[in-house]
Hints:
The complex is a heterodimer. Chain A is of the alpha/beta class. Chain A has a single domain (8-110, 151-398), classed as Thiolase/Chalcone synthase (Peroxisomal Thiolase, Chain A, domain 1). Chain A is 38% helix and 19% strand. By secondary structure, chain B is an alpha/beta fold. In chain B, helix 10 packs across helix 11 (322-336). Chain B contains 13 helices and 15 strands. Chain B has helices at 30-38, 72-90, 112-122, 131-141, 145-150, 155-164, 179-192, 210-218, 257-262, 291-304, 322-336, 349-352, 359-373; strands spanning 15-24, 27-28, 45-46, 59-60, 101-104, 171-174, 198-205, 248-256, 269-276, 313-315, 345-346, 375-376, 399-400, 405-412, 416-423. The longest helix of chain B is centred in the N-terminal third of the chain and has 19 residues, at 72-90. Chain B: Residues 12-424 form the Ketosynthase family 3 (KS3) domain.
Amino acid sequence: MAKKPNDVVITGIGIVSCHGVGRQSHEALLSGPESPQPVIDNERFAPYPVHPAPEIDWSEQIPRRGDQRQMEAWQRLGVFTAGLALDDAGLKEDAELCGSMDMIVAAGGGERDVAVDTMIVNKAMSRNDRDHVLNEVLTTELRPTLFLAQLSNLLAGNISIVHKVTGSSKTFMGEETAGVSALATAFERIRAGQSTHALVGGAYNAERQDMLLLQEGVQSLAQGAWQPLWSRSNPGGGIVSGSASAFLVLESRDHAEARGAQIYAAVGFVDGDRGKRAEGGLEKRLEGLADRSNVADSSEILVLSGASGLYELRDREKQFIADRWPSAALRGYTGLTGHTLEAQFPIGVALGALALKSGAALPCFDAAAEADMAGPAKSAIVTAVGFMHGEGLAVLDAE
Amino acid sequence: MTKSAYSDHLGRPLIAVTGMGIITSLGQGKDDNWNALTSGVSGIHAITRFPTDELSTRICGTVDFMDTPDIASELSFALADAATREAVSQAGINGDFQGPLFVAAPPVECEWVDRFAIADEAGFAGDQDNAYDGLLEVMRKRPHPDFTRRALFGGVAERLSDRYGTRGLPVTLSTACASGATAIQLGVDAIRQGRTERALTVATDGSVNAEALIRFSLLSALSTQNDPPEKASKPFNKDRDGFVIAEGGAALVLESLESAVARGATVLGILKGYGEKADHFHRTRSSPDGAPAIATVQAALDDAGLDASGIGYINAHGTSTPENDKMEYLSLSTVFGEHLPAIPVSSNKSMIGHTLTAAGAVEAVFSLLTIRTGTLPPTINYENPDPAIELDVVPNVKRDQAVTSVLSNSFGFGGQNACLVMTAEPA
């Protein structure tokens, strides 16, 4: 594709997952000869397996202990990973560019204090005046700072405080689609010349029962021993949650080249859609996104699927991909990182950019269901099909 | 009109507002709200939704007249829906909206009533080591899809999309107390980018429950001047002691002026510009020098192509917290300098309280009504002026004064700052 000054390019990648901290550990994963081995904790949240966060030296990106203490795990993970992305883009120490940088964060929120919630539930069991129980316990037991550590827009707020990114600050919500909208919005702004550089990403902490409860309300979680993504079946619903985060620095080509930045890949397309999924609705919308992305079938395409693991949606998405891009190489990245809700789509885009830059043929993530790649990909398609709603698709092109 | 009549000073499409809807504690719809607001009526009242015996704050500006269960996501949707219906109808758009949707919605979590119901189903004896172990066991036995649906952050946008036939993936956003302004800003961006001729921007907050109130209370953000409730919100007064938590919803149909004129729509005003800038000083406090807020106001003026002499009225963020009102005055006096004494600045929150996620859009609707009616809504409860804040706050009684340009400020926790500039339709 002809290069244009307002192309949107990726110049910085921060990523943390159960496979490790930072770009290098994930590059190794994508260019190794063997299928990556799953990193799973089967014990702590049994019967639910989760992909745990790796060991992290927080002070590498969040030097002040006071700052670390002001955040719950998902915020801390996101602030840390955002720092990695800024470092990677060579912008961490650039006060001027951080001060004019746009920021869009895909965020959930609300990490509960399990001990306080348990206290409330226990008291409520023996009392008729539950509203009073709530007031009594919450006013005396709730940590005043917990609210801010739970608040959705305070992931972005903490990035501003710790990394001084202050051009603008927006937080998008809405499960997986938050990540899709975040990338799409930054992409459109840069393409239209409204922005020159932006930090976009999300973070998810899977090691928390309040979110497991939310997902298990629709019996969506996998149970028992971990199984490969594409062949996963009972017991449970198929989702294995993962603690992970990805942040990307997006720039206009002009802006990136003027400062001599490395370019991982160019973003050719990002958009999403939503609606009823029955009666072919899902396939029709994916078809619409694919049409607009304008990527023809080729063996030089890598499709990174963010399938949540829910059986029916997973199978329908896989069939759609097989029909639409039969020559492409499919890799289900949820099998590596786990399902990460708001962070899901940014993680897929980060992995796609790393894969294109590495110039390597990726190993199979699930050898029983994925074909070998003959050579490096020239384009990567990233998908996200929300576990409850919404779909997204991005196209990245190698430089 | 010539082509240039549809473009702004930077050659971008001018953006018209062609539909507005609003709901607050003062009532439903523009007429009821505007009558009450300009009459200096307060919507602040004692909390009846939940008991308040143990609480230091016992007043609110909740919307208690909707036929909706006391579930934050349900009420937030109902408020958004009511405002959207009014806006779309005023815009004369029948059938599918056919443009993108931007929704500022509160980050609602699952409700205590739901947790208790599951605990009852589990038959807890009250001696759990970890309640969630037992709650999860209930879910494994039987799914509870409503439990999940109520706590999805994208839920309000999903339902609005279905009901109004908006196009593509809606954006659900939160920039704390600036959210409503941010939703409008995203709609402006989409039209300026040429991606659409119209956008639906909605902001809602129906999330006042005991836990939300206690959280804000623990941060010392809320007024504790409970008696009488309608006197508690007193922006720019010396004895102001916090905001009054409130609910509301607002919706604006944005449309390129060219498209609005072409289809014969009534133009209610122009969304002329916006500014934004994040603050890295503190999680809840603003930079003491006011620099980010100053930069935000200045950016909004620049974006609108106006200078400090170009604003006729300021719709203040004016929360009635000691910190906000001081900082807001600092930023306004810095940007407007010698012009400021001649610019009336009033706070709707003196009457409706702080509608949080909805505030930026609620106050944008009031700003446009100010332009359309030539009436400035007052700052009520202005009885003990803060001598350090020298503003013409339109004290206590509305004022008839024609204005053609309004600045509306929104500032929020997490270093969020967003300002909008709205003007009358070009002659």
